[in-house]
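User: Could you check the structure of this?
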Amino acid sequence: MAQDASPALRASGQAGEQADGYLGVVGDAGPAIHAQVDGVNAKRRLYYADLAARRRATINEVAAVTACELFRSKVGAGQFYRLPDGVWRQRDGATPIPLPDYCG
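Assistant: Sure, the predicted structure tokens are below.
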């Protein structure tokens, strides 16, 4: 996936990874944060669409698999993530994130 603003947004605590494979805004953020998150997600959608076409899968399937990878490797201690239940959580130290069932 192309480099984007997601690491800085996650580190700031104003955005976090979601179970749908997209970045989400955590809490009340201003228009600049929303615009950055929208930009990240637009790039992700293009990436997912390309990968889905090559794998003969749906965009949602590719996004869900990518979410599992992001939860495992990109969400650091103190950063936020949102599981399918819609609740934002903050990662506690090195404790692994409880992955959705579809992550296998």
